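Case study 2.
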Amino acid sequence: MPIRVLDNHLIDQIAAGEVIERPASIVKELVENSLDAGAQSVDVEIEAGGVRLTRVRDDGCGIPVAELKLALSRHATSKIASADDLGAIITLGFRGEALPSIASVSRFEITSRHVHEDRASSISVDGGQIGEPSPAAHPTGTTIEVRDLFYNLPARRKFLRSEVTEQGHIVRLLERLALSRDDVAFRLRSGARTLLDAPARSNAGGAAQRLARIVGREFVDSAIELDHSAGPVRISGWIGAPAAARATSDMQFWFVNGRAVRDRLLMNAVRLGYRDVMYSGRQPAYVLYLDIDPTLVDVNAHPQKLEVRFRDSRQIHDFVFRAVERKLAGTRPGLSAVPPGAANTGQYEQTRFSHPVDDAAPSAFGAGAQGVWAIAETLRGISTDPRPHEMETGGDGFAGAHAGHAAGTQPLGSALAQVHGTYILAQNEQGLVLVDMHAAHERVLYEKLKAQSGSSAPMQALLVPVTVEMKVDELDALMAQGEEWRAAGFELERFAPETLVVRAVPALLPADDIPALVREVIGDVASDSASHHLDSATDRLLGTIACRSAIHAHRRLTLPEMNALLRQMEQTPRADQCNHGRPTWTQISLHELDRMFLRGR
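Prediction:
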């Protein structure tokens, strides 16, 4: 076949294959044009999932009569004029491809009235054949009707999904567009049904209400507001509490200068920000906006403009990561919007309360426990009552603290007892608090280890070095991580092909059973069997140490030790979750307790 120049209509149909994938693509292009035109209200109507009809009406500035036919020409646009304009794009559209591409694969009609003109005009296009403008009745703004999508390309039409599926894509798309501009009213209808109705934000305090209408009240109630700036960059929006993580990434929204994107660099930065508090396999929920100097970002990097390129991608990645990480550091008792664990009040089983141990009893951490590894010692320098609480034991054997304890000044309240040797039961002004003592202690230890890690991490030399036998390949992998182990406070030496010698360990490790602990940590990290998902090798190692060293179930604690752990949780960053992302505590309110026992009815 000889080389030939394709006719314009065929060129438009080829271009439509890149721009118009399905009816939702049409809605995206037309609504973005409406927003660029300054619309304050956008109405979308669809039939048969947008295949039979897609109509978009706006109240923007409109198109002058003299330019209406020109707007249907390929690469005709009012948004850029030279190559220099591509370096600082501030509009959503700029290529001039959408209208001619849509018109080439549908029965198309555009009616518009410019803000400075007295009358409207209309042009019809049938399969790429452009008619002449004719007078029409229309208020200021533009209405575009797209009928019978792909009627002239049966091969493309047969790849469309069911009406319900295509309708779902349109709903999700318009939700993203509505999130990008809360100052614009959006409405989507299919026949007589309203699929989306998002009025414009009425005041500064209406942002959360508008957000709730689109993504749901559940997200808003557990979300943490974020607003941080640095130079020409600002990040704002909402990030979901770690306890509200989801199984899928369907609640992740990114907007760069008002443009909805699915950018891998930004998504990865947020994921890293959650790495210390997210349960493995779960996905964070967020609605985030990045405002940046247009000259520092290239939006012409993807056919559908779903990805962007930053001039300094490393700096943007770190900016987003740090902003999210620092905000999540405040997820600890007293600062969290809601308790991280949800109390299940639907089923109750027989519960066993253990009496707190008196001070004369053996410590839960053994006689040799010291430093942060004995909970009561973690509060050195913090003003707490060192005396054991007086106990009142009723006929049921339940041991509780006097009400005189200042629980009202402490978010987690005052410890009452242990439950099944695993949980701490406490009371505060709101009601009862349940704390997973292992998960809580693990977080406290992990944050302390992180704070002391690095080149100056305190170490303690072992009088008798610990020898660990390992497989050759496992030891090879471990020695390859020598810098991470050294940063964590370990001094390791390969004594033989299958023998590792540990000569020094972090100063925070308990002195009572270092060999066993070292063997467990090395075994976990070397075999990659630890359940941690932290991305940094050093953080992973520290997390494993904290997990292995934290108190475990069936260790009896004294009341001062329990209260010491509660106070330390209140001061520890990210204490709402353990290193694996599991919640460390939950609240059962007095209202819930009254409801359980039908009080007040």
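The two ends are 87 Å apart (CA to CA).
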